[in-house]
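Kindly review this protein for my students:
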Amino acid sequence: MLTRLAVRSLHEAFERNDWADVEAIYPNIPTSILSHHDTFLIAKLLHTTLRINGSARDAAGQEANQKLLLATDRLVDLYKARVLPPHSGASLHLLSIYKENKEAEKTKELWHWLSIQEGDEYVSQAVYGAAIEALAFAGEPLADLETLFEKALIRFPGNFASYHLSPEAVVPDRGQSAFSKNIPISLLQGIFTARLLNDDWRNAYLAFDVVLRLIPEGIPRRFFELIIAQRPFAEAVQVYQLGILVKALSTDRSSITLLGRAAVAVERVSGQQRAHIAKDAIGILEAEIYARRPLLSTQVSRVINILTHMAWDNKLCDTDAMKLRNFNIAECGSRLIKLCSPYMLGDIGSTLNSMLQLAGKTNHKQLVVEIREVIEELDTWNDVTHRALVSCVGAGGDIDGLKDAWKLLVKRAEQESRELGERDWWCLARAVNSINSPIAVAFATEQLALHNLSPQFQARFQEACQPWPGNGKEIRKPTKITISSEMEVLGEVLDKLEARTRFPDVTDVYRRPDRFSKGTNTLSGESNVAAPATNAQIVYDELTVDPLQPSPDKEAQLSKAGLPFDTLRFIHWKSVNDLLLLAEGCEKAKKAAAEEAIATGTPLKFDKDRESLRLYDELSFPLNLEEYRLRIMELRGRAK
């Protein structure tokens, strides 16, 4: 009777998701009473509790996390002692816990024990997939994991899994949905992860190609997230766009990650590469609207900051063409805000602050006025906004504007009963330095005298206000063609964003054959001047249709993206070709950089994001059909 009550209490604790009660109850229930499913639920709840608690950063949260990891160790000990009935799902959760908490040795020990158990009670193809992924993160050699993958295919053959998971396999009807019944996709995910972590880009992308072929939509988001996290920026952006199209990315985490990388990359590149970053960043906002997610102010602010990096310091623009370029970039920022504002969530103060920086750097005085009016209307003034205004008028060389902006900042500080901080003073110093005028320096000195600051700080401040020798980088004079090309890139992507804001659900933007083209070349086998998709379609048909099988007699089904599945599979295939081309180019560049470092005896310097952006303008597929076919076969490792 007591045992039955304990089991009932255990099940009630499962329903409440109460790990503390589950942990107190389950060790006291005899093995003969617990079911295999109970073991699964125990491991699952522990895993879920750890994931929820894992976001805690304070000391109490970390202490709780350590207790949960100790509970995992106890659970594993009972599992291995056969006190708990076996369940492959429990094995998967336990491996995942150790992987996610970077317990490499415990991962290896648990898998070693699981791998020698007879029968299939403890392991399944999904457990093998989880083990391969966990062992990859634990640093096991890729060759060993490939062997483990082959063993799993032999042990769990499923529905001709070995064939269907091979890069050369074809599906019987490209117009139908999924062909994954009894095919171990989780096993494929495991080896895909191992290859990606070990920089085996070709075979990782071929595994990605396999899952896109088998499941053209409804693909596990882990495939997309890993590429976005691990691969160079140009590749990551394309995979993100593909993930949005097939609705595989259900949160804005990937877009936030990519926009953060874009904001860093734009500081390391120059010229046309910055235009490419801006294009991709605006494309990310468009994709978020397509995914029906609200835009965060921080997301839009990062795109505005990228445009600001594209602009040149106004005082260095000594030709009408250069000044017009700056003006047009500022106008692009203004247009972007107007298009995005209906979709933005919460406070947009940070976005307005970023717009002030852009307007100041480009000396777009009318835009400054407009932004200030919006700030007044929405009452988003704070100390950051005031510093942004000081920086804005300083960058624009407006001495009177600087005086007014600084006095507003001081007034605000007095109203809040706060002392001016170093960030305020250094903001003023940078603004004065930008103006590069004795009048501005005199104003700053006058303001300094009104406050009780240490002599050391005053000396450093006055030094910072003085113009530096050769202050400002010389700008390489751009050609009219270069400026026109940059503005064309921004204009096109903003036109697409505008179309998206008017018709959020329309997928036509993804139908265009140049969807995955970048810069002046195309990476999708197309040509801007030659016949469209014929080459790609011909080679695609050669590689994905079995000539010995009759043509399908069913009409192609429509995917959730609104595209026929045969069209969607073709898009996937071209996308993987693009990724392989970019990855190969990046690998060659890295190898060349390594050889140069060895020859010169210097450390290797290689920025994968910057290099991938450079490749936008250098890579393309051949226009000749025979050459194109050979190039595709080479990239896919099928050339004889």
In short: The mean pLDDT is 88.
